[in-house]
Every structure is written in C-alpha cells, then in structure tokens.
Automatic annotation (TrEMBL):
It comes from Hamadaea flava. Keywords: Endonuclease, Hydrolase, Nuclease. Residues 13-159 form the Putative restriction endonuclease domain. GO terms for molecular function: endonuclease activity. This is Uma2 family endonuclease. Pfam families: Uma2.
Length: 174
C-alpha cells in the first residue's frame, strides 16, 4: 500500500471522485490519499462470485463500493450489499445505505481488512461484516468466509462458510 499525503486538509471525497479511473483504487483516510494497486486475480474472482451470490438471493450487491464517513474519509468495500436501491450515479455512499460490507483479504491488505476497516464499519453502524480469506487448504477456486454481526458497537462472529458451499445452498436464511 502506498500512502501519498498531500496536505490532508486539501483532499476531500469529492476530490477523489474526480481522479481518473486508471485501475488504481483510491481511499481517503482522514484527509490522506491512499492509492492501492489493482487486486490479485483470486480477489477479483471471489468478489464477482460473492456479488452474484447476493444478487441470486435478490440482494443489491456491487463490488468496489466507496463508503463515505465524512468529507475527508472514505473506504472501499470489496463487496457491499445495499439496504435499498442506491444512487447509481454515485461512487461513495453513506454507511447507513450499507447492509453488509465484505472485505477480501489479500497479502497487502491484512491489517486494513482485519483491523481498521471493520472497526470503522462498526463505529458507523454497518449491521454486518464478512471477512473473506484465501482457503486454508490452498484451493484457489474457493474462499473461507467469516460472518460477523454488529452487537453493541462491535462485530461478533456468528458463522463460518466456504464460498463453494454457499454457491450450492444459497445464502443462509436469517
């Protein structure tokens, strides 16, 4: 991860929405611009499969969704499930619009996806968080998923899944 700090007071979410669509991903951490390289292929493949899984269950899901935490702070969820129809003209959405935030762990994103992002999502009241990891058995065609729900401002683990199993059975009913 490359962090480029160009006088934090100068960067806003509106500014990064004007940056080129050049394959990089841009976040704003309290005014500091963070430029992330494109994700690994496994990451992109899993994001597509999860988006399809949610859509199959009639949930509004999109990959690479900006979540706006104020004028100077935004994070990109790898997949986000919306509570209702989002404004399709926007790249960044308020946390209240998000029902589930999904982070897919890549080697360079471990600290963010396990630490800072879920803490930010929980503080903003996003009801559910899914953490997706490369499978322990090294099967590049699958993923291990841990599901968390918000309880008293913290995420508590409620279930674990294999992506391939969810694709066969569908999303759990609850």
């Amino acid at each position: 991860m490359l962090t480029l700090d160009l006088t934090p007071a100068e960067w806003t979410v509106e500014d990064i929405e004007k940056l080129p669509h050049d394959g990089n991903r841009y976040e704003l951490h309290e005014g500091s611009l963070v430029i992330m390289s494109p994700a690994i292929l496994w990451h992109n493949h899993v994001a597509s499969r999860l988006t399809w899984l949610f859509e199959r269950a009639d949930r509004l899901a999109f990959s690479e969704v900006g979540i706006k935490f104020g004028d100077r702070s935004t994070r990109i969820a790898d997949v986000a499930v919306f509570a209702s129809q989002p404004d399709m003209r926007r790249a960044h959405h308020p946390p209240a619009a998000i029902a589930i935030a999904v982070e897919i762990v890549s080697p360079e994103s471990e600290e963010r996806d396990v630490g800072s992002k879920p803490a930010k999502y929980a503080a903003a009241g996003i009801p559910e968080y899914w953490l997706v990891r490369f499978p322990v058995d090294d099967n590049v065609r699958d993923a291990d998923i841990t599901r968390f729900t918000l309880n008293d401002g913290r995420y508590l683990q409620v279930a674990e899944y294999r992506l391939s199993d969810l694709e066969k059975t569908g999303l759990p009913a609850d």
